[in-house]
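Action item from last week, closing it out:
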Amino acid sequence: GRIVKFRENIGGLHQKEQILEVYGMTPEMMEKLFDQFEFEPGIFKKVKINEWDANTLANHPYISYGEAKVIVAYRTQHGKYEIPEDLLGIKIFTKEWVDRLSPYLEF
């Protein structure tokens, strides 16, 4: 149940290792899980980075409310985001954070 809830909240999985973000999941459990089930990557819900307000952005597990407020403020001041790397113009975001979020972004 936790795996399904996580997948639904995040909008799909693009890498097997994301399953380790589910509460209680261990690498050993992940191995056993994928021995039984084939992993098929797929993202079915994207973050509309140029349309959503801060509250809606913050509903994504990878975006905190504070981060969402900064995303919206920067967008308001500088215009729409074109590519994930545009988020690096915001000094609080790291390349790792942007890389983690980028598969879920819709421009």
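Closing note: Residues 20 and 27 are 7 Å apart (CA to CA).
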